[in-house]
Amino acid sequence: MLKYRIWAVFLLIATIALVYFLYSSQRENARFPFKFGLDLVGGTELIYRADVSQISGGDIADSMQTLRDVIERRINVFGVSEPLIQVERAGLVSGNPDHRLIVELPGVSDIERAVAMIGQTPQLEFKLERAGVRDLSEEELKKLTLDELFVSTGLTGRFLKRSSLQFDPSTAQPIVALEFNDEGKELFSQITRENIGRTLAIFLDDELKQAPVIQSEIDNGQAIITGYDAATAKEVVRQLNFGALPVPIELASTQTVGATLGEVALDAAVKAGIWGFIILSLFMVLWYRLPGVVAVIALILYVFLSLSIFKLIPVTLTAAGLAGFILSIGMAVDANILIFERMKEELRGMPARGTGGFAHSGGKEELRGGKNLIDAMREGFRRAWLSIRDSNIASIITAVILFWLGTASVKGFALTLGIGVLVSMFTAITASRTYLYAVSFVQESKLTEFLFSSGVKSYKLKADS
Same structural domain for residues 137 and 48? Predict the structure, then answer.
């Protein structure tokens, strides 16, 4: 028993350490603050629809990730605290094939300001003169649109490494100089090598800026855009360096949550969690007595450990996420109930055979095979483990599927639920068993019988042999 008592002390110290970590990280400018979603702290949510029709299927995921990174860089320039930007594709469940970018800006209540904050970053694209265009008469050319005159080369802003403002040494006119990354450099070299004598047009936000004729292969990965005054060229360079959008985006919807409403939702979620914990603890203590107290102590460790993990990952807590966490508290104690009920069966023993139930002798149940306390604990944990394992695996599979297929709010619920289930397996099996063995009694007494019984009855324990 000494070994378990040492480990129990260690777990208690670990619980105190987690409490201190959570308390200290709540201070201003703490390293690991809680991250809350808009529905709890207020702010603005912008949902953009991305047009990926011109991107091959294998490149869509990379393009959307690049889009996310670009928008994040632009938002960070404005100093918004803890923005949340995520890519979502709803087609797996709803049949909607749209690829969307969800931008959450805590503390920003002005939608117009939020939209302006993201802005319309220039979409840079190089298009090649279509075959046969030069054979057309001037009258025919006038009837054609730019899309009919030029075809996409696949060289877009996603391959841009950097841009800079320069000045032509002979004319002193401002120039927007472009430098492509390694992949873009190779593609640019191939385009210019294979299309000498054809026009390679430069478009910015679908507006034709230049239409130079390819004179020779350009293998240094550099190009220039002219035709701007100094102020405009500087702005274009700034926007391109923040990140040219790899795909066009369109603002699909907006939502604003007031700070007061968010605070009410957060207070309600916290109160629900506290009351749920208190009621659950009272039930466990009143029904299972000393094992119930042990379950509550393990449950306290579960709560603080889960919250610490939420801080360290970090997990963005939304109303749905908090609901998943509160639900996982009930699932955590469910494992203890399975264990304690198995222990009770082992302590009471099995009914006598051939009685069609319990045999009675003098009005008392006749039981056979009752075990002493230590053996009943050991057997209770062993027999309950398979049920706990299977139910938790089923819950984890459900959480993974919800996280994979669900929308943003569903993902928050699934993540906190999944983390909660994993942590509960540790606290319900390891922590509860350690505490229970640490407080177990070798000698039988009336007090022992009372403390390790459950419900409204006290069952006579079998003394150790």
Answer: no
pTM of the model: 0.60
Phi, psi of 318 (to 5 degrees): -110, 175
Which among 234, 255, 276 is the end of a domain? Answer: 255
Q: For residues 284 and 305, give the distance between their C-alpha atoms in angstroms, rounded to a whole number.
A: 20
Average pLDDT over the chain, rounded to whole? 80
Record the tokens describing residue 169, joined without a space: 């040494």
Pick the last residue of a domain from 244, 266, 283: 244
Q: How far apart are CA 286 and CA 284, in angstroms?
A: 6
Token pair, residue 321, equals 């996420």
Residue 79's pLDDT is 61
Residues 102 and 232 in one domain: no
Domain holding 426, by residue range, is 2-29+258-451
Q: Which residue matches tokens 């949510």?
A: 45
User: What are 349's two structure tokens?
Assistant: 């023993």
Confidence bin at 365 (pLDDT 50/70/90) = very low
- Whether residues 374 and 446 share a domain: the answer is yes
Predicted confidence (pLDDT) per residue in 380-392, tens digit: 888 888 888 898 8
CATH number of the domain where residue 294 is located: 1.20.1640.10
Q: What are phi and psi of 44, to 5 degrees?
A: -125, 140
Any residues with CB less than 8 A from the CB of 44 and at least 6 apart, and which? 38, 104, 105, 108, 109, 110, 111, 114, 254, 255, 256, 257
